[in-house]
Predict the structure.
Amino acid sequence: MPNKNYIKGRRFEYKIRDYFKNRGYTVIRSAGSHSEIDLIAFNKTFCYILQLKNSQLSKNARLRLHSALAGHTGYKFMKPIILSKDWEEEIRRAI
């Protein structure tokens, strides 16, 4: 049986996945990959690379994650997004 943190994190990933799916994006979840990327959401125009944290992030942690994700943006239409507890506001600012 998965531990509570895994279940909580997976639930958060599903919530964000559903948010993007309901807006017409195709979403890929990299479950169990232990990489910086949790979800990739894309449509014909944009591709978002998502790192999800089910808690607030310190400024330093956010900068480290953003630097790690920035290496995955080889195309100009790709944008890394880091989401935490305040995900709805963070999505509005990012998209």
In short: The chain has three helices and four strands. The helical segments are 4-21, 59-70, 87-94.
